[in-house]
Amino acid sequence: MVRTVLTVTVLAAGVAALGACAFLQTRASTEQPDYAVVDRIGRSVEIREYPALVAAEVTVPAGRDARNAAFRVLFDYIGGNNRPAQSIAMTTPIELADGATIAMTAPVETQEAGDRLTMRFFLPATVASDAAPDPLDDRVRLVRLPARSMAVLRFSGARGADVLDTRQRLLVATVDGSRDWAADGPPTAYLYDPPWYPSPLRRNEVAVPVLPKAVPH
């Protein structure tokens, strides 16, 4: 009996490892916004410079299913629920074809404020704001994000609302307690992996816009 249990455990571990490799390969092949790390606060917080970006955004009522609801709306948009209306077979990876389907990018940005949750999909660098397909769902907004400096704290594991709140508070306190940087807006979260991704391997980040602190004269 012990031998059987050990065999099953080893096999399960092997399957999990193979699955994790597949997940990592999927993430590696997904386009992500470019950024440059220009500074660090301690060992855990990066100061990143992001270029101007275009995003599709939706706001939904907060609640247990809010993330799924927001994700579905945005995924429908990049899947062809846009103008021009064009049906394109699902491929791997999702690709841009005649402007009707937009390739998936990571991270997904989420921000929860009171009774609302806002989620953004960053559009690929090849999709300029004036060329992005018009949403057919009026809940979807196309937004231009200016170039900005962000302080970012990366972590793995759980990413529920309480976890994100704790991490965001830690990030803001770390930034404001630093010598060179100050928070300049509300914090947000970057989620790189789907819910079924193994929790210990997830890439999660909390971020806050920052400005250099004024140098005293």
Account of the protein in words:
- The chain is of the alpha+beta class and 217 residues long.
- The chain folds into two domains: 34-51 and 147-217, no CATH class; 57-104 and 111-142, no CATH class.
- The chain is built from three helices and twelve strands; from the N terminus they run αβββαββββββαβββ.
- It has helices spanning 2-28, 66-78, 161-176, and strands at residues 36-41, 45-50, 53-61, 82-83, 108-113, 116-122, 134-135, 141-145, 148-155, 181-183, 188-191, 204-212.
- Strands 1, 2, 3, 5, 6, 8, 9, 10, 11 and 12 form a ten-stranded antiparallel beta sheet that branches.
- A hairpin with a 2-residue loop joins strand 5 (108-113) and strand 6.
- The radius of gyration is 20 Å and the shape is globular.
- 23% of the residues are buried.
- The model is unreliable at 1-25 and 86-99 (pLDDT under 50).
Summarize the structure.
By secondary structure, the protein is of the alpha+beta class.
